[in-house]
UniProtKB/TrEMBL annotation, chain A:
Family, similarity comment: Belongs to the iron-sulfur cluster assembly SufBD family.
SUF system FeS cluster assembly SufBD core domain mapped to chain residues: 175-398
Record-annotated SUF system FeS cluster assembly SufBD N-terminal domain positions: 22-161
Lineage, highest ranks first: Bacteria, Pseudomonadati, Acidobacteriota, Holophagae, Holophagales
Pfam families: SUFBD_core, SufBD_N
Name of the protein: Fe-S cluster assembly protein SufD
Organism: Geothrix rubra
Automatic annotation (TrEMBL), chain B:
Sequence similarity: Belongs to the ABC transporter superfamily. Ycf16 family.
InterPro entries: AAA+_ATPase (IPR003593), ABC_transporter-like_ATP-bd (IPR003439), ABC_transporter-like_CS (IPR017871), FeS-cluster_ATPase_SufC (IPR010230), P-loop_NTPase (IPR027417)
Organism: Geothrix rubra
UniProt entry keywords in alphabetical sequence: ATP-binding, Nucleotide-binding
Name of protein: ABC transporter ATP-binding protein
S-adenosyl-L-methionine recorded as keyword: no
Pfam families hit by this protein: ABC_tran
PANTHER family: ABC TRANSPORTER I FAMILY MEMBER 6, CHLOROPLASTIC
Keyword ATP-binding annotated: yes
GO MF annotations, alphabetized: ATP binding
Annotated TM spans: none
NCBIfam families attached to this UniProt entry: sufC
Length: 432, 254
């Protein structure tokens, strides 16, 4: 039985004419969508992420925000370090009045995707594996987003801030944002990218980020998901790292009622990748990470540390696939999944998945689900911290560990405060 | 200050301490020496309340209070401290933030003023000079990636911050080179006061050349086999432990 797309509560989003550009790409995505309903837990990839909540509300394409109100709203999210290198999107629409690119070095090009012509051939060609429902939805109907190009050997010293702010509609419908990003670093280029998602109320955000790191280029990518706890966030990231290139990312998920991160990385010869993640969940949040790291060629290195801290009745899902292709010799891949459950009803489902088709490789993986280490607790108690403070401090440390190397001080600080508050460690004073 | 009477303790049902008696008064420095596996470290850990050990008999009072009626953190706030042989690493918690928290918890317990981050910054900068620690170690995560020697430095820094009445130092010299050992030994001496006391647990007598005890005890098989003055440490340096064990086997204690 293949239900028609009408069975999907998201079918309204596909009504009307196809947006302009990328005709073939969109048609293919639409064709795939036409054959499927919303994913359900009967499907292996969606076994633990129940989308039942999406059946019910009316989803509508988000409307652009009013420029004047947006400016004041944006202030709290601006980081002084990235003041002059910020690009702001409100409800998925690029907000030029709130953005500022004067701090970007000459040659770096940043423009709204609406200004990118179909000549931008990279779009839709990067990454591997089949797109999921939400990525197809984005491909079929995106109208907003941006293209970022860093020319050969240009090292961008200041981090670039991509800020996405979303709001509920206020009329009972659920606004849907489908931002599309394309980031391409030419040979030897270097960039630090901070992608941040914030919001209020109920909305659906389905960003798709495509990345190309050319030979010897280095991209560091901080991804911060602070959507509202009523929001739905389904994100796809597809990256290709060419010979000797490096892609280092850290994805921090704090928000979302239901959320999924789906990074897929392809590494060419001698390429390096870091794919760290943290999900800090409480209440009835469900956050899923489905990652795919593909060592397609020899001499690649990858590191993946994924941590989940789960409280209340929340649920975290981690499915970490690492593939070492035939012939991808001397690959060094390490994956760790570490999880902390803070309540009886909290739950983690973790599944490391190593597929190794080469013989001369160094690959390891490990998964641990549990409570705090009694030796660590005792050590802190032996210094005079009562058991509750010791527990809170260790919980904070478990999560905050991933924040230490965030390069933007104000961002690091604000995230530490967030983690302090979410781990009941705020009473311990200012540890940030 | 500390009075131990016929203390017995076990780990996972195996007896490790088999009747320890020891009196430590304010102003005194005691050394507990003994071969590996003798129960030296266990004694220290039992005193500070390590959860792996079960006290099976005897009694211990600290400043007149029943020590075993106090939780580990209460013992710490009452003025008991142990510098561990293998300090634990705590990722994600900065050393400075942890030290300030520990300091303020103790200050709170003693009714003293707590220090805000700026005040504490001045305070800790003075303290790290005592142990010759580089400032960068304050910003790093607690003990994470520290070398053995750096961890020991950090233990003594914690001692300097908390100013315990009784400090138990377990194998302070392991992982330390000679220079670092002298620095930390001197730091410990500077922290010593007439109203404080020290219990130094060590396998090698070397550290006792810097931290000079008035009393030396040899512990083996969970019992104190011999107690004497500092000259015992010199003798152990020259002759090793076997003769004490043989003497004890032949004629019981002393």
């Amino acid at each position: 039985m293949t239900p028609a797309v009408d069975a999907s509560p998201l079918s309204d989003l596909l009504a009307g004419a196809r947006p302009e550009g990328w005709e073939a790409l969109r048609a293919a995505a639409e064709a795939r969508l036409a054959g499927q309903a919303l994913p359900d837990t009967g499907m292996e990839d969606w076994k633990y992420l129940d989308l039942a909540l999406l059946h019910g509300p009316a989803f509508r394409p988000a409307a652009p925000a009013v420029p004047t109100t947006a400016s004041a709203d944006i202030q709290p999210y601006i980081h002084p370090e990235m003041m002059a290198t910020r690009q702001v999107f409100v409800n998925g629409f690029h907000a030029p009045h709130a953005s500022c690119a004067t701090g970007l070095p000459p040659g770096v090009r940043f423009f709204p995707i609406s200004a990118a012509s179909e000549a931008c051939r990279l779009l839709g060609t990067l990454g591997e594996g089949a797109p999921d429902f939400f990525e197809d939805l984005n491909t079929a109907r995106f109208t907003e987003g941006a293209v970022l190009l860093v020319p050969q050997n240009v090292r961008v010293e200041v981090p670039l801030h991509l800020l996405f702010l979303s709001r509920s509609a206020g009329d009972g419908t659920v606004p849907t944002m489908l931002p599309r990003l394309l980031v391409a670093l030419d040979r030897g280029a270097e960039l630090e990218l901070v992608e941040e998602h914030h919001g209020e109320g109920t909305y659906l955000s389905c960003p798709v980020v495509e990345i190309r790191v050319a030979e010897g280029a280095i991209l560091r990518h901080e991804r911060i998901q602070r959507e509202s706890t009523e929001a739905f966030h389904f994100s796809a990231l597809k990256a290709e790292v060419a010979r000797g290139g490096q892609y280092h990312s850290r994805t921090l998920s704090f928000g979302g009622r239901l959320s999924r991160q789906r990074p897929r990385i392809r590494l060419a010869e001698g390429a390096e990748a870091t794919l760290d993640g943290l999900a800090l969940l409480g209440g009835n949040q469900v956050a899923d990470t489905h990652s795919f790291l593909h060592h397609a060629e020899p001499h690649g290195t990858s590191r993946q540390l994924h941590k989940c801290v789960v409280d209340g009745q929340a649920r975290a899902i981690f499915n970490g696939q690492v593939r070492v292709a035939p012939g991808a010799q001397v690959t060094d891949a390490q994956q760790q999944s570490r999880n902390l459950l803070l309540s009886e009803k909290a739950r983690v489902d973790t599944k490391p998945q190593l597929e190794i088709y080469a013989d001369d490789v160094k690959c390891s993986h490990g998964a641990a689900v549990g409570q705090l280490d009694p030796d660590e607790l005792f050590y802190l108690q032996s210094r005079g911290l009562d058991p509750e403070d010791a527990r809170n401090l260790l919980t904070y440390g478990f999560a905050a560990d991933l924040l230490a190397r965030i390069p933007v001080a104000s961002l690091r600080r604000s995230l530490r405060h967030l983690v302090l508050a979410r781990t009941q460690a705020a009473s311990l004073g200012d540890l940030a | 200050m500390l009075s131990i009477k016929n203390l017995t303790a076990s780990i996972n049902g195996t007896p490790v301490l088999k009747g320890i008696d020891l009196e430590i008064k304010a102003g005194e420095i005691h050394a507990i020496m003994g071969p590996n596996g003798s129960g030296k470290s266990t004694l220290g850990k039992v005193l500070v309340g390590h959860p792996s050990y079960e006290v099976t008999g005897g009694e211990v009072t600290f400043e007149g209070r029943d020590l075993f009626a106090l939780e580990a953190d209460e013992r710490a706030r009452a003025g008991l401290f142990m510098g561990f042989q293998h300090p634990i690493e705590v990722p994600g918690v900065s050393n400075a933030a942890f030290l300030r928290l520990a300091y303020n918890k103790k200050a709170e317990a003693e009714g003293r003023d707590e220090l805000d981050p700026l005040e504490f910054d001045d305070f800790i900068r003075e303290k790290i000079k005592l142990v010759s620690m580089k400032e960068e170690f304050l910003d790093r995560s607690l003990n994470e990636g520290f070398s053995g020697g750096e961890k020991k430095r950090n233990e003594i820094l914690q001692m300097a911050v908390l100013e315990p009445k009784l400090a138990i130092l377990d194998e302070l010299d392991s992982g330390l080179d000679i220079d670092a050992l002298r620095v930390l030994g001197d730091a410990v001496n500077q922290l010593m006061r007439p109203e404080r006391a020290l219990l130094v647990i060590t396998h090698f007598p070397r550290i006792l050349e810097t931290i000079r005890p008035q009393y030396v005890h040899v512990l083996s098989g969970g019992r104190i086999l011999k107690s004497a003055g500092p000259e015992l440490a010199v003798e152990l340096e020259e002759r090793g432990y076997d003769w004490v064990l043989e003497e004890a086997a032949a004629g019981g204690r002393r």
